[in-house]
Specification:
By secondary structure, the protein is an alpha/beta fold. 16% of the residues lie in helices and 34% in strands. It folds into two domains: 8-69, 2,3-Dihydroxybiphenyl 1,2-Dioxygenase, domain 1, CATH 3.10.180; 84-135, Signal recognition particle alu RNA binding heterodimer, srp9/1 (2-Layer Sandwich), CATH 3.30.720.110. It starts with 7 loop residues before the first strand and ends in an 8-residue tail after the last strand.
């Protein structure tokens, strides 16, 4: 395996429903490991036991997304200055991703033709994660 860069998103209590939502969009295998499954990871707070210590979505097209819940005993720095960017040239596939991510989302910029010739849009999904979607226009690579 070569080098892979994976977004790893921190949630307070919503890693499980967020990753299940992303699985409904991208498909693939979802591995969810709660704190209670690992002695070293137990926080001493029973409310944290079913929260996700580590979650990993592996989509069949090579997309990877990881996430975890921040235990109540730790400071959560929700909302970061990072966006997950989804780029590609399959207009139908990318538009489907956009539509599904848009469910319950706050749209920052509608998916539309951009000055550089691609289609581009920005949103914060229903879990507060910022996404940018770029669909390559004719002759562009989508990256």
């Amino acid at each position: 395996m070569g080098t892979i860069l994976n977004p790893y998103i921190s949630f307070r209590d919503t890693a499980r429903p967020a990753l299940e939502f992303y699985q409904s969009i991208f498909g693939g295998e979802l591995d969810l490991r709660p704190f209670a499954d690992f002695d070293f990871a137990k926080t001493g707070n029973p409310e944290d036991d079913n929260k996700i210590m580590h979650g990993h979505l592996r989509a069949p097209n090579g997309l990877n997304l990881m996430a975890a819940d921040t235990p109540a005993s730790m400071e959560w720095k929700g909302g970061t200055a990072i966006s997950v960017t989804l780029s590609g040239d399959d207009k139908d596939e990318m538009t489907t991703y956009w539509k599904k991510l848009s469910e319950g989302a706050t749209i920052g910029e509608e998916l539309a033709e951009a000055p550089w010739g691609d289609s581009f849009g920005m949103l914060a999904d229903k879990f507060g994660v910022d996404w940018m979607v770029n669909i390559a226009g004719p002759g562009n690579t989508g990256q």
